[in-house]
Amino acid sequence: MLEQYLRRHRARFLTELQQLVRFPSVSAQPKHTGDIRACCDWVANHFRQIGLRVIVHKTAGHPIVEASTPRLPGLPAVLVYGHYDVQPPEPFDLWKTPPFGAVVRAGKIHGRGASDNKGQFFAHVKAVEALLATSQPLPVNLTFLIEGEEEIGSEALMKFCKQHARRLRAEYIIISDTGMYAKDLPTFTYATRGLTALEVRLDGPGRDLHSGVFGGSVANPVMQLARLLATCTDAKGRVTIPGFYAAVQPLADWERRAWRKLPVNDKRYAAALGAPTVTGETGYTTLERRWARPTFEINGITGGYQGPGSKTIVPAWASAKITCRLVPNQSPEKVRAQVIRHLRRHCPKTVRLTIEPGHCAPAFLTPPTGRGAKAALVALEKAFGQPPVCVREGGTLPILDVFRRHLRGEILLVGLGLGDDNWHSPNEKMELNNFYRGIAMSAELLQRLG
Amino acid sequence: MLEQYLRRHRARFLTELQQLVRFPSVSAQPKHTGDIRACCDWVANHFRQIGLRVIVHKTAGHPIVEASTPRLPGLPAVLVYGHYDVQPPEPFDLWKTPPFGAVVRAGKIHGRGASDNKGQFFAHVKAVEALLATSQPLPVNLTFLIEGEEEIGSEALMKFCKQHARRLRAEYIIISDTGMYAKDLPTFTYATRGLTALEVRLDGPGRDLHSGVFGGSVANPVMQLARLLATCTDAKGRVTIPGFYAAVQPLADWERRAWRKLPVNDKRYAAALGAPTVTGETGYTTLERRWARPTFEINGITGGYQGPGSKTIVPAWASAKITCRLVPNQSPEKVRAQVIRHLRRHCPKTVRLTIEPGHCAPAFLTPPTGRGAKAALVALEKAFGQPPVCVREGGTLPILDVFRRHLRGEILLVGLGLGDDNWHSPNEKMELNNFYRGIAMSAELLQRLG
Q1: Which of residues 190-209 of B touch A (CB under 8 A)?
Q2: Residue A36 has what pLDDT?
């Protein structure tokens, strides 16, 4: 009966998803504030139409939609998280279809936000609609939290979760905002990396100096910055900052074994990224380096003259943006302090060092052995027709730590995106197959969590 | 009689210099092509008025003014070089008087080009006028070469010198386009540093990558560039590129002795530059580092994200602009090859290395013991009323090598500029004292060279 409903309403589900994708709900651009609001209203109304109780929470930024099924005593609380805001679509000229056209072609829906995150969270909405419409018992007290600021830091939601922690507390938190390891390969993500950011700046002379008249007699801040950054890693790709690896939780045997079974082709991987070769910390595979090892990454560097031709100066200053990806058990604040201490120790007195600490987010890891994970694995297998893989994710989802601390609950990352969905890039798309299978997976999962 | 003439015509000389400074003869900016031409015409006419034979040579760029006294057999040939073009005046808002106003105030003439180089070469013009007008014997066959492209590389003049080498050959080449060591301290410059330039670029992935998803598994080009550049120097301020110092001509004892007598204050020097401290190659003084030691200078570096906040990427590429200042006996081409070889050897295979060689100019040195230098030292002492100092210059004058190779002759650098004349900066000025004393010095020097 559920299956029938899903089959019968496929076309409408897609039409509705197209409507949703057509909102240019770009959270970063003030000119789209009206579109954000319109998109939020559409989502709220949609929840009402399928029978949920809706509250739209105003925030200092963009509103949060909270939608709940009727509370029934004794049922486990489940929270489904998603976001209706999207990345900016620029650069426009690289799009092959209009970024907010929601064009459907060859089994894909094309548009900014189609996969990140509208198509993913909407699959759960459609599952709930189907369950309610077919009078299937919904054996959980379900709440959707759909925010409008994920692409700009989720500030309002973090505050909201702290303020309403008790009411929002859930036994399971379901999130489809990650990727599948490969096409048709259902994927359960049980860990993400953390992050710590800082910016370092070296000041030398008070202004750019003539490198002929003065060169050789004062420190060159660019050279000193290069020398300083070079002290942070070694030729084996290891970070040489004292204590950096001290707290790192080593990979479990079951993980290494499981990952070795995943399809891997380093050559094809490097070619797809346009890199000469894979490389990294000695003693680890590419997947281990991406998912389970911390990094020291320079995101940008600047100093002196950067235009065409040459300008013979000793630059006045140089700066670099740094982020470290962190793995479970590393404290972002501690690692940041270690980095700062190292930089201070190795910076010569011939330049002035300034360090601006940036944001922090811890890594997340829950082995896929909990009750929720087991249910998710079964639901994924049923929906996709083959056994799911369990993976980590190299990126960072700062909201997870907020959920973990304030809402508790087992976090279930059941991503429906693909590596080539072009999140944050031109020509974003989502596979319709993943959308439909996602609906089935969600319905199955909600029933099993009851 | 000469002195009388100079005294009597001081006011007119200044009025004429003001006329010359008022031309916005900015060689770098196409909108000023008409002004360049007008300035050139003014200079040519001025030479005609004082009795010289003038040829204005058209070039692919801006014209060259050649002006000669009547040839007399048996007299030594003397060439006076200068340039009528000027640096761009921008940024306008920092000027306290109009950049082309030629405002005279408190013993200074203010304006772009006042000191670099109009006031300096015009002093020689006025000296020749005075000598001819007072029927002093002009005991040399004198030629002025005043170009209009010094600030943009002197390309036309270099070609011109090669083409007309035989005709232009001179026993002495007089140039006032350098600075005095201190106010009221007449200065003879007997050496300049050379230069070799190159740009290095490292390419990693084909595009900026998400540092969470991919970080740790491919090389970060910014980090690799930092590591590569760090291999080029050591903590003692020495360049570690093999062979870099091999050909360096060591400082002569007489130079070290002479320089030790010059007024030096490292603290005040660092403070004036806004640098935390002086520093550089161990075992050398500040003057030695600036004038007589080669350098490896990074003029600019760029890579990745450089805007506000953070962007968590592995940048696709990074690049740096490098110039080495060179000292006598170092071949710019050889040093450049050494640098390139070193970079190639130390660059890991995980990134693609591209090196773009830039321009080259050798250092120049003629000990101040020649007949011309001796005459210049006496002329400087007579005009300024105290014994001159002999110095080197850290900057590079590429035209010197062209003169040396094609025109031969002893090069006499008798600069009239001061360190605070603001060459290439807003509020350029020239001391009128240096202008007037320069005229007297030039008249004396020309008579002594006969």
Answers
A1: 193, 195, 197, 199, 204-207, 209
A2: 98
Contact yes or no for A197/A206 (Cβ under 8 A): no
Under CATH, which number does the domain A194-248+294-361 receive? 3.30.70.360
CA A123: distance to chain centroid?
18
- d(Cα A325, Cα A360) in Å, to the nearest integer? 10
HSE-up of residue A120 (Cα within 13 Å, Cβ side): 29
Give the fold, CATH level 3, of A2-192+363-449.
Answer: Aminopeptidase (3.40.630)
Best residue in B269, B298, B325 to probe A by mutation, most A CBs within 10 Å? Answer: B298
Instruction: Report the pLDDT averaged over residues A240-257.
Output: 96
pLDDT score at B153: 87
Helical packing angle, A119-133 and A10-21, nearest 10°: 140
Give the tens place of pLDDT for each residue, A42-52: 999 999 999 99
Judging contacts by C-beta atoms under 8 Å, the chain A residues touching residue B306 are 300-302, 321
The whole-model pTM stands at 0.92
Position B177: which residue type? D
Q: Are A177 and A87 within 8 A, CB to CB?
A: no
Spatial separation of the C-alpha atoms in residues B103 and B429, rounded to whole Å: 9
Question: What ipTM score was computed for the predicted complex, to two decimals?
Answer: 0.92
Tell me the C-alpha distance between A397 and A191, whole Å.
10
Which DSSP letter does residue A252 get?
P
Whether B274 contacts chain A with CB within 8 A = yes
- Residue ranges per domain, chain B? 2-192+364-449, 194-248+294-361
CATH class of B2-192+364-449: alpha beta
- B196 DSSP β-pair partners: B324, B360
What value does the mean pLDDT take over residues B223-235? 98
Residues in a beta bridge with B82 = B146
pLDDT 10s digits, B330-371: 999 999 999 999 999 999 999 999 999 999 999 999 999 999
pLDDT by residue (tens digit) across A267-292? Answer: 999 999 999 999 999 999 999 999 99
- The minimal CB distance from B349 to the residues A276, A313, A320 is found for A276
The alpha carbon of residue B74 is apart from the nearest alpha carbon of chain A, in Å, by 40
Would the CA dihedral through B229, B234, B237, B242 be positive or negative?
negative
Q: Does A293 touch chain B (CB under 8 A)?
A: yes
